[in-house]
Amino acid sequence: MKLTKTLLGALAASTALAGAAAAQTEMKLWYHGAGNDVESGLLNTVIEEFNSAQSDYSVVVESFPQQSYNESVVASALAGNLPCILDVDGPVMPNWAWAGYLQPLPISQEAIEGHLDSTIGRYDDEIYSVGLWDAAVALYARQSTLDELGLRTPTLEEPWSKDELMAALDAAKASGNYDYALDLGTAWTGEWYPYAFSPFMQSFGGDIVDRSTYASADGVINSDEAIEFGEWWQSLFEEGYAPGTSQDPADRDVGFIEGKYAFSWNGNWAAAATLDAGVDDVVFLPAPDFGTGPKIGAGSWQFGVSSACETPEGAAAFVEHALQDKYMAAFSDGIGLIPGTKEAAQMTVKYADGGPLAVFFDLSEKQALVRPVTPGYVVAAKVFEKALADIANGADVADTLDAAADEIEKDIESNQGYGH
Predict the structure, then answer these.
(1) What domain range includes position 266?
(2) Mind telling me which residue stretches traverse the membrane in this protein (predicted)?
């Protein structure tokens, strides 16, 4: 009799658990990290712990290769087949929101308190997405190089001016110790160009579009300040300071490590490999100030809720769960990116105060400028990339930037101003 009661109790408990599991509403999540086992494993942990921590929702992930992810989302949106939760690249988010792929994310203010501002995806006075990390770019150098060339080590409080930067490049070039004074990473294409190089233009006083209205590019991307930037940009290649657009990708990856370049403009994602390669005296310097303050790019992958999602409150609950400091720290330790909060940074190996990459958190906090928050960015970014590549290859600066302005203007007009 006692055994029978025990069995009945076990059956009742198992039936209750099955009922609870059946009651969970499934929410599909699409992610861009297929093929990255470390990243996928970390995300699976977040999902598993969310699913077991509550009984209302069950998140199921489907991962895509990053190269085809955006196209997959657009095609599925047109077919009316979007999941509930979308992974979205920060600068792309306004386009997806404008196109109706995303709805505002009903997340609490408490959940994003203390986050790097660049991890919060805002568009049209609404929050549409939030990320667990960001990325930052710095000027890589060896302290021994700075010392040998007699250069001041710039700081966040006192970055190099344009004149100081050029004096440093001149000194490196004159030393004869390097193939080139500066590695800009021109072997990389695509989003690297607007992410890494438009902040230079913005520091000169130009920009890709007019951020006050987002209705025009004319007089901005081809302004006097933008032309001054373009002439400086072209001089880097014409005068032999930096390799051009035909740079060997292998040199981009290891040229600084091997001593081919005195300085390298690169992201925090490459910093750990540089340290691991034995460049013990590497220093990560802030962006130079070209006149209107030093600036670097910002805004990485974030979670948002699709317009097809019938449980936006559940999607928001998942995002809030994922934003715990322990998860942001785990992602940082696993894939090397900058945690979204100072508290999470203190839990990491490399980004805690005194850590070898702690400066990157400060760079994101103090120098970061998100790319233009407009649906038209996805077109304008490609126009900007082509213009800079053409200028690097010798095209007339003013004519090229005028043509870029015309192309962006036509795109804005053909899309009725993108709703701005």
Answers:
(1) 137-296+376-419
(2) none
For residue 15, being part of any structural domain is answered with no
CA distance 10 to 177: 76
226: left (phi over 0), alpha (psi -120 to 50) or beta: alpha
Given a cut of 90, is residue 40 above it in pLDDT?
A: yes
Q: How far apart are the first and last CA of the chain?
A: 74
Q: 120: closest CA among 330, 367, 312, 319?
A: 319
**pLDDT confidence tier of residue 5, bands split at 50, 70 and 90:** very low
Please return the burial class of 110, using the count of CB atoms within 10 Å of its CB with bins 0-12, 13-18 and 19+.
exposed
**Which tokens is 126 given?**
């609404």
Do 256 and 304 fall into the same domain?
no
**pLDDT over 70 at 16, yes or no:** no
Q: How many domains does the chain have?
A: 2
Considering the domain architecture, whether residues 236 and 382 belong to the same structural domain is answered as yes
Pairwise CA distance, residues 49 & 311, whole Å: 19
Angle between helices 192-204 and 224-238 (to 10 degrees): 120
- Give the other-Cβ count within 10 Å of 281's Cβ: 11
Predicted model pTM: 0.92
Q: Which H or E run contains 207?
A: none
**Parallel/antiparallel/unpaired status of strands 301-306 and 102-103:** antiparallel
Same domain, 267 and 381: yes
Q: Count Cα neighbours of 271 within 13 Å in the Cβ-side half-sphere.
A: 31
* Distance in angstroms (rounded) separating the CA atoms of residues 291 and 205: 7
Cα angle value 266/290/139 (rounded, 5°) = 20
